């Protein structure tokens, strides 16, 4: 069954002065149900290729922490957050993932109509995060 969703892409900005970035994750939320899903890139090779001075251990720790935070949100927690923060994905992200790191920035919110949340997440992840990965498809 198809339903509306919103999403945001997480960008890693290595140098805020140049504002160059690489997409490193996606969060998607159902508009019809208290559901949220996320996927963050834990393969640092593409980011390291773009930004050779990337500290890989720190990058991996950030991505792993973000994944664990979003994976821990069940329907009850999502409902609680939405009751307090509103229905927007921005409120959900802000409440559960307060980012203190100036290297991580969220894209503007996008939206669409899709199938199951897990399948929608995978499609968005492939489109925005791994689309230009040289190892994709191998």
Describe the structure.
- This protein is of the alpha+beta class and 138 residues long.
- It has one domain (3-128).
- Helices cover 38% and strands 27% of the residues.
- It has helices spanning 45-50, 56-71, 75-85, 89-96, 117-128, and strands at 3-15, 20-30, 36-40, 104-106, 110-114.
- Strands 1, 2, 3, 4 and 5 form a 5-stranded antiparallel beta sheet that branches.
- Strand 2 and strand 3 form a beta hairpin.
Helix count? 5
Largest sheet entry = 5 strands, antiparallel
Number of strands: 5
N-to-C span: 32 Å
Mass-distribution shape = globular
Question: Residue ranges: pLDDT <50 for 5 or more in a row?
Answer: none
H-E string: EEEHHHHEEH
SSE class = alpha+beta
Number of individual domains: 1
Content of β-strand: 25-35%
Radius of gyration: 15 Å
**Relative helix content:** 25-40%
The averaged pLDDT comes out at 86
What is the secondary structure topology, with strand pairs?
Blueprint: E1 3-15, E2 20-30, E3 36-40, H1 45-50, H2 56-71, H3 75-85, H4 89-96, E4 104-106, E5 110-114, H5 117-128
Antiparallel strand pairs: 1-2, 1-4, 1-5, 2-3
Helix pairs in contact: 3-4
How do you describe this structure in short?
With 138 residues, the protein is of the alpha+beta class.
Primary descriptors:
5 helices; 138 residues; five-stranded antiparallel β-sheet; single chain; globular; alpha+beta
């Amino acid at each position: 069954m198809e339903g509306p969703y919103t999403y945001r892409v997480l960008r890693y900005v290595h140098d805020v002065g140049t504002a160059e970035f690489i997409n490193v994750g996606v969060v998607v939320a159902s508009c019809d149900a208290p559901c949220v899903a996320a996927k963050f890139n834990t393969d640092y090779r593409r980011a390291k290729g773009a930004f050779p001075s990337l500290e890989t251990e720190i990058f991996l720790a950030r991505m792993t922490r973000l994944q664990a935070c979003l994976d821990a949100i069940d329907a009850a927690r999502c409902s609680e957050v939405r009751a307090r923060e509103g229905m927007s994905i921005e409120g959900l992200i802000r409440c559960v993932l307060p980012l203190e790191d100036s290297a991580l920035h969220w894209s503007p919110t996008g939206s669409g109509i899709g199938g199951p949340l897990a399948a929608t997440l995978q499609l968005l992840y492939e489109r925005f995060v791994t689309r230009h990965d040289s190892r994709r498809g191998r």
